[in-house]
Amino acid sequence: MKFLYSDTQDYVDPGYDFVNDRNSPGRERYWTDAYAHEIMHPAPYDGLLVAMSAVRQASGVAKSKVRYSTREEQRMLRDGARKFLRYGGPRFKDSMLMGDCGAFAYVDHPIPAYTPEEVVDFYVEAGFTHGVAPDHIIFECDLSNPPSGAVNDAVLERYEITLSNSEEFLRLVKNDGTPFEPMGPVQGWSPKSMAEAAAKLERMGYRYLAIGGLVPLKVDAIKQVISELRRSIKPETKIHLLGFAKAESIHEFTGYGITSFDSTSPLIRAFKDEKANYYSERADGRLDYYTAVRIPQALENPRLMQGIKRGVFSAEDLHKRERRALDEVRAFDKGMSSVDDALNAVMDYHQFLVRGDNSGLEKQDKAIEKMSGLIRRTLEDAPWKACSCDICRNVGVEVIIFRSSNRNKRRGFHNLGVYHRHLGRALGAQFDYF
Q1: Whole-number Å distance between alpha carbons of 419 and 197
Q2: Model confidence pLDDT, tens digit, residues 50-89
Q3: At what angle do helices 361-381 and 339-350 cross, to 10 degrees?
Q4: pLDDT (tens digit, 9 = 90+) per residue, 143-196?
Q5: pLDDT at 434 (0 to 100)
Q6: How many Cα atoms sit within 13 Å of 326 on the Cβ side?
Q7: ω before 42 within 30° of 0 (cis)?
Q8: What is the secondary structure of 322-365 as a DSSP string?
Q9: What is the rounded distance in angstroms from the CA atom of residue 341 to the CA atom of residue 59?
Q10: Which CATH number fits domain 46-263: 3.20.20.140, 2.30.40.10, 3.30.70.270, 3.20.20.105?
Q11: Which letter does DSSP use for residue 24 in this model?
């Protein structure tokens, strides 16, 4: 089972100055930055996925979250995605490079934002090894398996559009002799309807299916969907799980014949989760999580800046507390400060992220106490000291500090590495990360 990471232009400045919080001299975005697969050995994933909607503005969709500039798009299509992502050469020659449409970008649109012809051209120009036909997401999944007559017309239309696009997409691929492997997107309103769609795609000629619409589903519901699919298609037909948000539960899916899946969860949790920011593996092989030590930049954090502007906080006072928190945590890492001293300094500063939110003093006190307990555990266990991945070995305690993109993304890279190793162990493979 291959783990793919969905590219969201996540790279870091290799020479970032953590003490002064400055980029390295002469740093140029992208050009001198490094992707996770460039600074971690081995790479913390088996392949990359690039969504068309992240690269090209979706026609008629005003809120499409395009991450690439026009110049970056042109460069990627001119040089090819593998070269643009610096994912080429002998080291990655056998790694998957998958394209899909990024249907979330046009989820509220009546029809997909890209035609099959546009998608095929995009995949060919970018040089992907695999490409998914343009689908239209169906989020509803009724486990009672209602018949089509009991389903909303808009849902049925999305179902038919996906199948129709898939048929045209495959026709174009076969006629043009394109170099990538086509993947048929599975959408449906229930496990049975998705199984029927999968069987239809297989009859069209697809040998690799990409199951969509899984993001809001719980693990048991996803299992029902995949079980139903497997009963309807050939054992050798490959399955990919699109945007698999339950990545930590992947060990429960090892018996379903899944070939690949993609997820951004390990990286995103590094800076969006309230408490599970740093991945670790327990002695029993299960994943464990630690809370990052939150020491934001006083003059950049929105909540602190708002308090300063209202005259509630003093910028000078906040800056002093911020520096003391950083100094104590770094001293603790060197064995020159205690857990209690480091924790007190951190929480003395952290309280300002909680106070003043009009939630009431009692609720604020509980939130501060809870965070204090979580950070105490992080400091007492000091998981970054036990980890010898490239990230933790090179930046040390900075990886556990929740502060600025260069730290947070590095922590995300570490998470990807831990997760990839965890997946390998679940599948009986071995990776030399640590």
Answers
A1: 32
A2: 999 999 887 666 555 678 989 999 999 999 999 999 999 9
A3: 150
A4: 999 999 999 999 999 999 999 999 999 999 999 888 999 999 999 999 999 999
A5: 39
A6: 18
A7: yes
A8: HHHHHHHHHHHHTTSS-HHHHHHHHHHHHGGGTTTSSS-HHHHH
A9: 56
A10: 3.20.20.105
A11: P
Catalytic residues: 100, 262
| SS3 at position 209 | strand
CA distance 5 to 98: 10
Helix, strand, coil shares of the chain as percentages rounded to 5?
A: 50, 10, 40
- Return d(Cα 28, Cα 6) in angstroms, integer: 23
**Amino acid (1-letter code) at residue 75:** R
**170/163 Cα distance (integer angstroms):** 11
Distance between CA atoms of residues 58 and 54, nearest Å: 9
From the list 239, 207, 206, 235, the residue with the least C-alpha distance to 223 is 239
pLDDT tens across 337-367, in order?
999 999 999 999 999 988 866 778 899 999 9
Q: For residues 48 and 96, is the Cβ–Cβ distance under 8 A?
A: yes
What are the domain boundaries of the chain? 46-263, 287-420
Query: What distance in Å separates the CA atoms of residue 339 and residue 382, rounded to the nearest whole number?
Result: 10
Whether pTM > 0.70 for this model: the answer is yes
